[in-house]
């Protein structure tokens, strides 16, 4: 979920669900179509798994970053873009949103890491099935099995590198957000919390 493209994150919840669901549904439907050649079965997979993954993905993103729903679409896009690029958002008003979104990405990364122990098992099983299908199965089934092996290999090698690089940029964006000047108090007497009452305390 951390590597979901930024342009998906800055959509509203319905569009997020559509993007995630369509991507997952098309992927699984393509596997079914290649393996079986049955387009009606692929259509069923698309219509069933697409909405399931879409709802799950949108809800997970919404729980991780609830404050995103309160932002205007343009502000949400600015926050996501700056955070993922490791840049300053350039607006003190949006600095808290940058910090919250950065925290959401870290939470999702930790959730993914908690399930990471399954990946070596998935890799072994998928490789064994691919070898078996190559020896004893039809060509279509072998092709799909090796595609699964390739996806698992990407998840084990390429994805962690991309996540680490993204989180390094996120940390830079957090530092930049914290460095932005704080908004002045209602009487223009200085940074918020530094007015006369705060000094008197």
From TrEMBL:
The chain crosses the membrane at residues 20-53, 116-137, 143-161. Residues 178-201 are annotated as: Disordered. Keywords: Membrane, Transmembrane, Transmembrane helix. This is Uncharacterized protein. It comes from Streptomyces collinus (strain DSM 40733 / Tue 365).
């Amino acid at each position: 979920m951390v590597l979901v493209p930024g342009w998906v994150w800055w959509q509203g919840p319905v569009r997020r669900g559509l993007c995630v669901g369509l991507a997952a549904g098309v992927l699984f439907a393509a596997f079914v179509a290649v393996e079986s050649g049955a387009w009606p079965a692929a259509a069923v997979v698309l219509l069933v798994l697409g909405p399931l993954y879409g709802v799950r993905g949108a809800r997970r993103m919404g729980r991780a970053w609830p404050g995103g729903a309160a932002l205007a679409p343009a502000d949400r896009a600015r926050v996501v873009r700056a955070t993922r690029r490791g840049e300053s958002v350039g607006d003190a008003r949006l600095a808290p949103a940058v910090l919250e979104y950065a925290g959401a990405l870290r939470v999702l990364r930790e959730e993914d890491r908690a399930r990471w122990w399954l990946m070596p098992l998935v890799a072994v099983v998928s490789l064994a099935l691919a070898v078996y299908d190559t020896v004893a199965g039809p060509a279509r089934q072998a092709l799909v099995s090796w595609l699964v092996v390739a996806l698992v290999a990407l998840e084990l090698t390429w994805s962690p590198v991309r996540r680490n690089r993204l989180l390094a940029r996120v940390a830079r964006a957090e530092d930049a957000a914290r460095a932005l000047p704080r908004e002045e108090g209602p009487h223009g007497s200085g940074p918020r919390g530094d007015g006369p009452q705060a000094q008197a305390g």
